[in-house]
Specification:
The chain is of the alpha/beta class. It has a single domain, classed as Carbon-nitrogen hydrolase (Nitrilase/N-carbamoyl-D-aminoacid amidohydrolase). 28% of the residues lie in helices and 31% in strands. Helix 1 packs parallel to helix 3. It is globular.
Length: 279
Amino acid sequence: MSAVKLALIQMRSGVDPERNLDDAEALIREAAAAGAKFVLTPETTTLVQKDADQLFQQIHTPEVEPAIVRFADLADSLGIDLLIGSMALKGGASSDGRERAVNRSHLFGPDGALKATYDKIHMFDVALGGGETYSESTNYAPGDRAVLTEAAGGRLGLTICYDVRFAALYRRLAKAGAQMISVPSAFTRPTGRAHWETLLRARAIETGSFILAPAQGGKHEDGRKTWGRSMVIGPWGEIVAAFDHDEPGVLHAEIDLDEVGAARSRIPSLSNDREFTGP
């Protein structure tokens, strides 16, 4: 049995990065004290700020971002693998001369070393109706590289939020060896209510992987409303652990990575690809 004790941190991050850091640290310490060896936080852990001017005043380049040092020290002191689901960081000017941020996951090892980073590939540019629109690509530069790394003795694929709607990314990670795939998120309430659980379970079933989805939840200081309902989904599509609310907290789960091989041997869809033509 390849057991992993993990915890998902559900948050309601606001517009004050220092307070968000304090809130995240308290929940991470709570998770580790209860035995979690792998702890994951949601998308935009350190700042939820929809005002672009305020956003760029509050974020930093990776070299001087204080949260990176603080989370590295925290992982080291607790002896845990720590995935900060994402932080907004300054990414420099793009080809059109506009300053853009990056939405980046950071994985720290039990010694505090930065093991991997991943920049969100798919930008949330949508019109949901009722005047609710999002244009993530206006302020964020998309990533262009899938990332597979190691955490808690298993192979981990990194994704963020809207990526969950693009099954090809998950299939590629699984075929490359991912046993777990992280989906730190800040889902809107309309899309969360309609699609959150269905998408997570679909990605788990299609890939035969554990899906680890820590979420933001509730009404944030900047007015944004997110869905919450953090979830761990097993490789057969079963719900291993889940919140049924938006409140901040720690969701604990113990998973057995041997179940990944068992699920994939029962339904070997990752190796049953066939070439085809058309349309």
